[in-house]
Amino acid sequence: MTYTRVTIRGSRRKADVTVPSEESVGTLMPALLDLLQEPSRGGEAMVISDLAGSALDPDLTWQEQGIRPGALLQVTTVDDAPQAPEVIAVTDVLADRLAHRRDAWNPGYTAAGIRLGVAVMGFLIARLLTSRPELLAGASGAPSAWTIVSLLAGGGVVLGAVVNRRGLPGPGGALIALGFGASLPLAGLLGGGDLVSVSVWAAALGWLVLAVGLGLGRGSTSALIGGGLGTAVSALLLVALACGVQPATIAVIGGILAIGALGLLPGIALALSGLTGYDERAMGGAVVPGADVVRSVGSAFATLTWTTVAVALVAAEAMVVLVLTGRGWHMGLAVALAVVTALRARTFALAASRAALLAATAAPVIAWVAASSAGVTERMIAAGLAVLLLLVWSAARPSDVVQARLRRLGDVAELLAMLATVPLALAALGVFSDLLQVFA
């Protein structure tokens, strides 16, 4: 048996003792307390610690805890023991926390900044060319400014898609951004200066860029579906405008179809991703690879996000047009559509989808406050009420029971608002007034 000579200091006495190195500290504790004549302190637990504050484990031996000959120890109560040392590697902690922060700069932000800069420069180049056509007038046989802008926009998107297909997302994304930026002035030309037409053309070009650049360029089925849906809806709106249909009438029909489509989007996304087919195969006893299911789930979420953004954009445009008409039935329909859109956002779990629907809900409010023909006082009161509502929402911390009641109340409000859209739409389309004239 080996021994270790240590110095132990109590509250009254200090002793140099030789302890068996292979005995546990707790076994020798009573003898050491008697040796030091340590007074009883009402049953408080006693510990032996070194001068740095590290308490010895009573279940381990002196040797296992690395107690060397000549060590200076002290006996205290647990409450009076000095604080154990904490060694913190500040550099390591800083690096670890930085790596886990979502707002840490990464190559994705760099790529996004480059694409934004290229898009802005593309827009400025196209804007300068279209606003100063005389710049090309001096050259014989020179194409028109609009031709050059069209080639710049279309060529950038197509070339970017080809580069993306070659596995170069950096320059491919930059070229697509160039094409998108250059296409925006085209919306002003094609829309003829009408605000509604310009906005629809801008949306159509944006969705077309998404479908070609990301859908075909990167092989993203979800982007292709979302871009195709947005382009198709925008094309229908443009056809209606070209046929002379009033924007208010298009807004009524488009708003009703948009909120109706919101209930169908989750099922459509699941069907297009192939998840329903996997479920049927699993029920039939077939083995479904887990990797395929995970990939299909990701595709379903992405498809739902893109299609929701497309539908939300249509709903926002419809509600903005309705509130800016200043007519009672149209504004009532816009309010009902906004209520349905806001409450329907609760069922979308992904941030992008819910944010798109909430932004669509806020669009008519912002448009009415900013550009309505109503008086300044009324608009200021509406803006103040909106601010008050948002402040209450940010401060509210309801319990689980209250949240359940609010959800049920929201379901009822959504149902009532959905039912109200039908008579409001008929009234906005003039059906009721026509019936009154017939039976008058």
TrEMBL record:
Segments passing through the bilayer: 107-125, 145-163, 175-192, 198-216, 223-242, 248-272, 293-315, 321-343, 355-374, 380-396, 416-439
Domain of life (superkingdom): Bacteria
Domain EccD-like transmembrane: 113-434
Keyword terms, alphabetized: Membrane, Transmembrane, Transmembrane helix
Keyword Repeat: no
Record's protein name: Type VII secretion system (Wss) protein YukD
Record organism: Serinibacter salmoneus
